[in-house]
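cache lookup: miss for this entity combination. No prior model stored, computing from scratch. Input as submitted by user K.M.:
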Amino acid sequence: MSKLILPDIQSLTDARHIPIRRVGIRNIRHPIIISNSEGLEQSTIAYWTLTVSLSAKEKGTHMSRFMTLLELYRKKVMTPFMFCEMSKNMLEMLSADCGDINAIFPYFINKSAPVSKVKSLLDYEVKWIARATNKEIEFEVVIQIPVTSLCPCSKAISKYGAHNQRSNITISLISSKEIKMEQIIRLVENEASCELWSLLKRPDERYVTEYAYNNPKFVEDLVRDIAIRLNEQNDITWYRIEAENFESIHNHSAYAVIES
Amino acid sequence: MSKLILPDIQSLTDARHIPIRRVGIRNIRHPIIISNSEGLEQSTIAYWTLTVSLSAKEKGTHMSRFMTLLELYRKKVMTPFMFCEMSKNMLEMLSADCGDINAIFPYFINKSAPVSKVKSLLDYEVKWIARATNKEIEFEVVIQIPVTSLCPCSKAISKYGAHNQRSNITISLISSKEIKMEQIIRLVENEASCELWSLLKRPDERYVTEYAYNNPKFVEDLVRDIAIRLNEQNDITWYRIEAENFESIHNHSAYAVIES
Amino acid sequence: MSKLILPDIQSLTDARHIPIRRVGIRNIRHPIIISNSEGLEQSTIAYWTLTVSLSAKEKGTHMSRFMTLLELYRKKVMTPFMFCEMSKNMLEMLSADCGDINAIFPYFINKSAPVSKVKSLLDYEVKWIARATNKEIEFEVVIQIPVTSLCPCSKAISKYGAHNQRSNITISLISSKEIKMEQIIRLVENEASCELWSLLKRPDERYVTEYAYNNPKFVEDLVRDIAIRLNEQNDITWYRIEAENFESIHNHSAYAVIES
Amino acid sequence: MSKLILPDIQSLTDARHIPIRRVGIRNIRHPIIISNSEGLEQSTIAYWTLTVSLSAKEKGTHMSRFMTLLELYRKKVMTPFMFCEMSKNMLEMLSADCGDINAIFPYFINKSAPVSKVKSLLDYEVKWIARATNKEIEFEVVIQIPVTSLCPCSKAISKYGAHNQRSNITISLISSKEIKMEQIIRLVENEASCELWSLLKRPDERYVTEYAYNNPKFVEDLVRDIAIRLNEQNDITWYRIEAENFESIHNHSAYAVIES
C-alpha cells in the first residue's frame, strides 16, 4: 500500500462548527540549549507543550509537525528571541492563526558561597511561554527560586531561635524588553530571608544562619518586598509573584500571591 | 510568660502600601464528607487551599484561623451550597473582602459493568472552587474523567486494529443552577470512545473493545462532541473542556482544549 | 455470542517454563476504613497494589478477581489482622502460592497543641504490606512522620538562630505482636527536634520554636535516637529508620538510614 | 570570628554506639554528561543521591564533600566505569568503608520511524547505581522503556479491535561485563507488542497499528519473553524485569515482575 492512498482523516472538513482553542502535543521531554546571560550555552532537558488553534472547519491538526518543529530547533541556541521565532514558525507549519509553546526546564547558576567563595551549581525551575498570533508574539518567563524564609512572629515571641524553612518564590513576568533571568533571580534572592547555595562550608553556614535571623520575613513580606523591586523596573508590563513556605512547624504550606 | 503579652506581629500596620491578592494556607490534607447525587455521604480526603485578600495596611493574615475553619466544617456533609457558605464564613473569620477555597479530592461512583452488571468503584479526581467576595460567591467544579480514546486515523489506514489509550477529560464549569457531578460525568463518558470500569468480566471486555472500535475519536473530537452536549445545558454560564490522550504509540500526550 | 464460548486465554497452558514472581493490579485508588488505636473508625482513601505468584505452566492470572477482593473488603473495618486475612483470601481466590497486598493511605491523628491545647488533625502517610504464603503471613507497617529538625552545627557556630526545616521520618517495621501506629508515631515525635501540629496559637508557636532550639539534631541523630527507642521494643523483629531533611539552606535533602 | 575556631560538631565522637548504614545528600539536581554506545556525548540532567556508611563512633558525616565530588565530576564524560571510579573516590573523600551513588536521568535515542525513516528522539528514564566497598564496586543499571502492549484476551474475544495502551518496562540488571544501554533497550523493544517513536507519519502509524495487533502480549508475556532473551546473555549476573500496563480500559495498571 503506497503512502499516497492512505486516507488523511485529519484533513477532512468538520461539520460541527466548533473551533478548537488549542490542540497539540503535551509533556514531551526533549533537550534544549539555553544561552545564559553571559552568552554561554547550557544544555538542559525540557518538558514541552506545543499547541495551535484549529478553525471550525478542520477536523484535526497534524500532530507529527510539532515533532518536526522540535527537531528543527534541537541544536539551536535558544534565547527568548529564538523561542518566539520558533512559535512563529509553528503557526506557519501548522497553518494556524495562533498558538502557544511552553517549555519547562531546570536552569543552573554557578554561585560562590558567601564567605568561603567555593563554587557550586544551584538549580532553578524555569518556564518559557511564547503566545503567538499572526500579528504579535507575547513572551512570558516563569522562574521558581528556592530561598530560606524565617518567621518574624516566631522570632519576636521566642526567647531564642526562630522557625525557618525552604520557600519557593515563583516569578511570572512579561516585559517589553528582554530581562536576563540572572537579574530576576538576583533581585528575588536579595529580598528573601536568605538565598540558597548547594555547597556551604562552616563559615558560610554561620553566615546564612545569622543572615536569615537578621532578615525575618512572612510569606506576605516576601511578595511585597519583591513587588517593590519589580515596580522599579519600567520594562515589566505584567507580573505575578507567588511565595510558598514549606513551614517547618506544620505539614502544610503558607502561600501568598501578588499580581500587578 | 502569659499569652497576652506575646507581641502580635501580624496585626501591625504595614507601611509598604501594597495590597496582597491572596494569602493563606496551601495543600493541607484534611478529610471531607461529600453528599453524592442520591444524597448519600461519601467520606474522602481532600487537599485544601484557603486564601483571602489582605489590604495594604495589614502586615499579615492570621494563618491559624484557616485551620479553625477547616475543623469547623470537618464533620459537615459538604454540598456546593455548604462549600460556598464555608467561603463566606472564611471572609468573616479573617475580616477579608474576598477569598477562595479550593479542595481536590477523589470521588467514587459505583458502576455496573456493561454486560455482566458486576459492580465496582471508579475514581474521579474532583476540584471544588469557591470564590467569595462580600457581594457574591462563584462556585466552579472541575472533574477529571478517565476514558478510552481510539484513533480514527489509525483505524482508517490500517487493515485491522487501531491504537487506543487511556485519556483524561477535564471539565471545568460554572453554572447558575447546581448540576450533579454524576450528570456531568455521564455526559462526558457518553462522548468518549468508551467509558472505563474497574471490574470487567470477559463479556464486558469484549463489549468495551468493540464499542471503542466503533467509536473512534481524535482528541479534537472528544472536546468538540462534549462541547455540543454542554452547549445544550442552559444553566452553564462558562466551561472549559480539556482532553489529554496518553498516546499508546508515543511517549507523550495529545491534548486539546475548548473554552466557552 | 454467549458468555460461555468466549475463549479464556489466561487459562491456557504456558510453554515457556518461566514462573512469574508477582502479577496483579497496581495503583488502584479505593476507599479503606481503618480502626485506630482507640477502636474508632477512620474512613480514608488508599492506593492499592495486589499481586500473586504465577506458576510456570499458567499463561495469565485473573485480574478481575483482585477487584472482587477489594470490593469484598471495602466496608470492613481494617486492622492489621483483617488485612492479613485479606491476603490469605487473595491466595485462595487466585489459586496462588504466595502474594502481597500493599495499601498506602493518609492517616489522621487529632493532636492537642502543646500550650493552648487547641485540637487539629495531622496527616501521616501510612503503608501496610501483607506478604502471604500458604504457610505464613508477614505484616509490615511503614509510617512517614513529618517533624522539625534543627541543625546542631548551625546552632553551635552561630551567634544567634539555627537553620531548621521540615523532615520526614520513615519507619518500616515488622513485629511479632501488633504495635499501635499511634505508639510508633509518639516514639518518633519524641525524638525529633520538635513534633508538628496543623494548628498553633502564638503561645504554641513560641513553645515549638524554643523547644526545637533546645533539641538540635542532625539527620544522623534522628535515626540513631529513634533506633535506641526501637531497640527497647522486644516485639520488633526488623526495622528500617530513614530521615530526610528538606534543608532550609540548600535546595536538596540530607538523608540517613539505619536498618536493624 | 575566624574560620579556625568554629566548632566542628560533625567530627565529635558519638557515644550511642550505633553505626549508620548510609548518610548523605538526596535528590540533588545536577548536570551529567553520558557517553552513548557510539561514544558520542549526551548532556542531560540527573537527580543524584550520594551516601556513605558512618561508623558508630563518628557523630556526623561531612555533607559538603558530596557536593565537592559532584562538582569534580561535572564536566567528565560519564561511563559506567567512570561512575564506579567516582564512587571509589567518594569513599576516600568521606573516609568511609562503603557507600552508594545513584543518578536518575533522561537518556535519548535518535530513532528512525519504521517506514518513513524520519528521525526523532525518544526519552528513556535511566538510573545508574554504584555500590562501593573498599574491596569491590557493584554497578547496576535500571532502564525504563516505554512500549505499546496489546491485550491477547481482548483480541481473541472480540470481532474486531483489541485494547492496547502505553506500558513501562523497567529492566534492572547487574552484569560482569558492560552491556550497552542501547542493546538492552533494543532487546526489550523487540519483545513488546510494538515499540514507540516520537514522530510517526501515516504509513508509520499504519505499520505500528498492524504490528501491535499481530503481537498481542499480556503483562505476563512481556516479562516472560524478555526473561528468555536476558537468560541468553551470559554476562548478566542478576536481573529484575517489571512491566506496568496503563490499561486503556481501566483507571489502574496491570503489573508483573520476574527476578532472576
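stored under new cache key. The domain at 20-259 of chain B is CATH 3.10.270.10 (Urate Oxidase).
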